[in-house]
Amino acid sequence: MAVQPLEDRVLIRPIEAESQTASGIYLPESAKEKPMQGTVVACGPGKRLDNGERIIPTVTEGDTVVYGKYAGTEVEVKNVTHLIVRESELLGIVE
């Protein structure tokens, strides 16, 4: 199953949180924070303006982005959890 986002939405694969601290302590699933960074897997064609033109998305496939802690909707693609967010919910691109 492949997912192609619509309009100004972006499909992101979250970067997994570390399961071990710097001092070597392993963290249980309940103690891990929700990731706030991910890799862009697919982008929609862009938001359509009233005059029919589209705004080209700023992000491209392969970009690492930062998003809000509770942004978007989780979907499962090929048994991997992904996130679909609007481009306006993205906070930045990691360089």
Q: Uncertain spans, ≥5 residues at pLDDT below 50?
A: none
Oligomer: single chain
* CATH fold-level name: 10 Kd Chaperonin, Protein Cpn10, Chain O
Task: Give me the strand/helix succession.
Answer: EEEEEEEE
Please give the radius of gyration in angstroms. 15 Å
Total strands:
8
Helix coverage percent: under 10%
CATH class category label: Mainly Beta
Tally of individual helices: 0
Outline: elongated
Summarize the biggest pleated sheet. 6 strands, antiparallel
Q: Per DSSP, what share of the residues sits in E-state strands of 2 or more residues?
A: 35-45%
Give an overview in words:
It contains no helices and 8 strands. The chain has 95 residues and is mainly β. It has one domain (9-15, 34-94): Roll (10 Kd Chaperonin, Protein Cpn10, Chain O). The strands form 2 sheets. It has a 6-stranded antiparallel sheet, with no helix packed on it. Strands 3-4 form a two-stranded antiparallel sheet. The two termini are 30 Å apart.
Keywords:
mainly beta; 10 Kd Chaperonin, Protein Cpn10, Chain O; 6-stranded antiparallel sheet; 0% helix; elongated
